[in-house]
Amino acid sequence: xxxxxxxxxxxxxxxxxxxxxxNVSLTxxxxxxxxxxxxxxxxxxxxxxxxxxxxxDYKGEVRINGGAVSPKKLRIxxxxxxxxxxxxxxxxxxxxLASRIKDGWTEAKAAKMAALCQxxxxxxxxxxxxxxxxxGQQQRVSLAxxxxxxxxxxxxxxPFSALDAITREEMQDVFRDLWEAAGITTILVxxxxxxxxxxxxxxxxxxxxxxxxxxxxxxxxxxxxSWKSSQEFFVKGQELRSKxxxxxxxx
Length: 251
Ligand code: ADP
Prior knowledge:
The chain has 251 residues and is α/β, with parallel strands linked by helices. Helices cover 37% and strands 24% of the residues.
């Protein structure tokens, strides 16, 4: 479970302090996906960085599974927009690295990696380097790496935004299947309303200047393919898009 209470973060600018987040509170129950959406500059990345333990200078409370944010004690899976793969390492080494550092390499890990690679269609790509892969393939490697790590929490910063529309939808399904099997508590930052509606059990709508939580929506249809193709899904998408546009930026 991730709990954020009255989180306020200010960056020190050259002339003045810039309040990126102001009194942001949210709770992500164990084993659920919270999709965070809002206009550019509303503090989505800042929120992820605080929960990941990368920003330590803040006011308020952040707890993961009831304790402090401690990247040493916890496994925090982070998926950045650009996939975060090391260009000088092969696909296989990229997938293994974080897991090997945390746990050492075991037969069980090797078996799990083989199963993940089979599921993600990566078996024939293991000896390649990241630059020899398409965006969708790099994304699959990034997913294999993070699910092999079996993190306590997963933080995703617009993970599918660099992909074309068809590949993005495909990867949303791949993520959904992996997540459903693993049930990892996840914060997914996205600027695609359909992605939030498809993947988030909870949708947190943020507004900017300063970044605050404007609305929290429960989404009981999360992950359902029939919901994704329903008229209601389309209508909800339009509603959400209008709300974000009314805040001054497109989504
Ligand atoms: P989002 O991810 O929603 O686009 P960010 O968290 O990146 O928003 O940024 C929130 C606010 O904080 C913005 O106004 C941005 O300009 C500001 N900001 C982000 N990073 C820095 C930084 N390193 N120094 C100063 N201001 C920053």
